[in-house]
Request: fold
Amino acid sequence: MDDCFGEWVNANLGAAGTGELASLVAEPGAAYGVDLAAYTPFTHRAIGCAMRVHSILGVGFPQVIYQRALEIELAREGMQARREVETPIYFRGQQIGSRRVDFMVEGPQPDKPILLELKATPDLTDTHFAQIINYLEAYRLHIGLLLNFGSTSLQYRRFVKSTFQT
Reply:
């Protein structure tokens, strides 16, 4: 695969995280059909990478260790990924801050990346679920994976966002 994904991330999120989400135009309150079948091969590959990392490292490390290992494993898998992508957060059309997401990985098209949010905690909570849902909303992304390395088996959840509120 060419570097269209990397070009998209740099153009739309900015190399330093200062760009705007120009190609993710989503109208508030509108519903968008999400082709889950198109995303499935990418989410399966990302989850497979996370499983291999967890299998090798086990439980007990801080999140950043799993993040670094996952970056290596995603590259070995041939997946285009950007780690700690700083992205702006907007409220009513005005930038109110920014946040670094753990990973943006390639999706079915260069302008349809998948958000990966990593945790290293014994249990996932409603707060973790709300966080990834808020990220999908703020960045106008349709698919996100929440990966938890802090339990004896890798925990993962796929989140799908088909409507955007703001």
About this structure: Residues 36-57 form the longest helix (22 residues). Residues 4-12+31-160 form a domain with the Trna Endonuclease; Chain: A, domain 1 fold (CATH 3.40.1350). The chain is about 35% helix and 25% strand. Helices lie at 4-13, 36-57, 63-77, 126-139.
